[in-house]
Amino acid sequence: MKKTKTVLHPTYYTEFACTGPECEYSCCQSWRIYIDKGTYLKYKQITDPEFVKDLPQKLKRVRDRDPADWKYAVIQLDDDGRCRFLTPDRLCAIQKKFGEDYLCNTCRSYPRFYSYVNGTLEASTSLSCQAAAELVLTNPDPIEFKYSEIEFGSADVKYTDTAKRFDAYLQADNIAYLPFAADIRECCIDIIQERKYSISSRLLFIGMMLKKIADLHEQKMENEIPQILSSYKSAIESGELPELAENLTKNEDAVHQISQYLYKNVFETAAKQNQKYKIFSNFLDNVNAVLENLGEIVPGESDVDEVIYEFISERVKKYFPKFLETRGYMFEHYFVNYFFSTLFPFNFIKDGLTVYDHMIVLAEQFMLLRLLLCCGMDSDQEITDEHALIVFISRAELSVHSVIPKVIADWYKANGMDSLAHMSFLLR
Known about the structure:
This protein has 19 helices and 8 strands. It has helices at 37-45, 49-52, 55-58, 93-98, 105-109, 130-137, 154-161, 181-192, 199-218, 225-238, 241-246, 252-273, 279-292, 304-327, 329-342, 357-375, 385-401, 404-414, 420-427, and strands spanning 3-10, 34-35, 59-61, 73-75, 112-117, 120-125, 145-152, 164-165.
């Protein structure tokens, strides 16, 4: 039975349309596709001989100690990493034969995400989808939000009814944030869309605000959060942000250590996890090419880390300013979408991160995006639109499908590099 619901969403949400077989970076390839319990049981009831003959080879039950209904089973990918229900013409065999109602929740909803915040159903779109990324990131105009009356089919009604709820993110020691969470996120979006400041300054300003909010939480003074939000909005209007940002100094040793950690650990992991994107392996290939040019490495005479750091720095200086000048809005859109769709800055609260710790995740994402934009190209050329889109798509996928953001945040904290000053290093 269809049902109409009031939904808060970015305006682009209703414009999205899947490109199906035309999509170059298909979501039916290289991703783990979970099947919810209801759909799995529905598949088991199908008697069509062609469908059931090799079903055990295509679906596998998830045998966790306490499996969640949303990942009751998983589709087994073929040797090329493709969904076994993908036809030669790159369409879904299940949908073609049985209709959309037989799609699992994952395939029916992706790249759309739903959540409830203070009783309001919100809808967004993941930028890990090529069509969504092209729709959102290539539009120079700011992202806007609106309420719409949207009709859902019977299966989607049930799916949205069980969407994640914001209050479930907050454990007992964080529940005091609940009355202010939506306003905090809204203020972050307002700041990141304030284009009279650089994207780095906007991110740093958000970090300053989150630090004060986290401090209030530690002191059990959450009732003062509205005043903090108001003061930071006023600071934007009065032009204090550039002065505050410039007052933070840079520590080259810390930048070196952070850079080394990223390219030695993060990119190697990313290259393994993102087989369908070349930019991670391109980055490593470019670094290895620099090392090959060193010739024989003599211990004590050849500072490999310094050479790699200089390579990264030179590429960033050469390409990044022009990219920000002409397409800096892509960063803005990426972070607006990230804030809204992930319930920022609370998306890692359940993993033990504080509100301020989410600033580490932001700074890491900015630095990683910048490195990939400038150092992940096939050759030493200008940053093309196609390359930029692949960078943002792959980074968005990494956020959805890995624990790397949490691992990185933990590393910064363990090494004493989680201060606001250290975060400013990453944003310069």
